[in-house]
Write a structure and sequence with these properties.
This is pyruvate kinase. It is an enzyme of class 2 (transferase). The protein folds into 2 domains: about 5-50, no CATH class; about 55-215, Pyruvate Kinase, Chain: A, domain 1 (3-Layer(aba) Sandwich), CATH 3.40.1380. The chain is α/β, with parallel strands linked by helices. It is built from 9 helices and 5 strands; from the N terminus they run αααααβαβαβαββα. β2, α7 and β3 form a beta-alpha-beta unit.
Length: about 220
């Protein structure tokens, strides 16, 4: 990889263009003889570029370029990133249908992981293109009570973070959800604190029917 390409990739890292990095890497690995070495080099360049960013100023720089008016989903995305900084949150958990709310949160570069829980496989796959998003494909049948169904999916995201080790007891977590079913209704932000252990091999598998009790699930 020559110096020109290295400079290009470093500038991409400074400009926060994740999709362009993926496209550039894909083009080179498709033609080159050393695809693994290319990807490793790309990863090292991105880490170096990320370390050179002034993290305390990045959120203000990005949010100041967003001109009002903005919709509720966009406003909640900005608020969730700011709340995660103020609360020193371990993660932002997003319940999403189309993936847009998670994409908007990633746009403002939170310092913690974004756990995007979705029931749509394509949305989960596409979320990998955005910086900091850890998509979870939730396959279980929806509960009749939508509020309980949202809470179960939030718990599913919490358990993922606990198993991976970046969410611990006492940590704060930002939860972003909608006020009704469907896409385009994200307008709710909650700050939650992890108070007790609840880790199973696959917590979603404990839900077998729409009549299962959420209270029994937490026992």
């Amino acid at each position: 990889m020559d110096r020109c390409l290295v400079r290009t990739k470093r500038s991409i890292g400074y400009q926060f263009d994740s999709s362009l990095v993926v496209a550039t890497c894909r083009r080179e690995t498709a033609k080159g003889d050393y695809p693994l070495e290319c990807v490793r080099t790309m990863a090292n360049i991105c880490k170096e570029a990320e370390a050179a960013i002034w993290q305390t100023q990045i959120f203000h720089d990005l949010s100041s370029k967003t001109l009002p008016p903005i919709d509720a989903t966009h406003a909640v995305a900005i608020a969730s990133v700011e709340a995660s900084v103020k609360c020193l949150a371990s993660a932002i958990i997003v319940i999403t249908t189309s993936g847009r709310s998670a994409h908007l949160i990633a746009k403002y570069r939170p310092r913690c992981p974004i756990i995007a829980v979705t029931r749509f496989n394509q949305v989960a796959r596409q979320a990998h293109l955005y910086r900091g998003i850890l998509p979870l494909y939730y396959e279980e049948v929806p509960l009749v009570d939508w509020v309980k169904d949202v809470d179960v999916r939030v718990q599913y995201g919490l358990n993922f973070g606990k198993r991976r080790g970046f969410i611990k007891i006492g940590d704060s977590v930002i939860v972003v959800t909608g006020w009704r079913k469907g896409s385009g209704f994200t307008n709710t932000l909650r700050v939650m604190y992890v108070e007790h252990e609840f880790i199973r091999e696959d917590p979603a598998c404990t839900i077998y029917s729409d009549t299962d009790s959420y209270e029994n699930l937490l026992k």
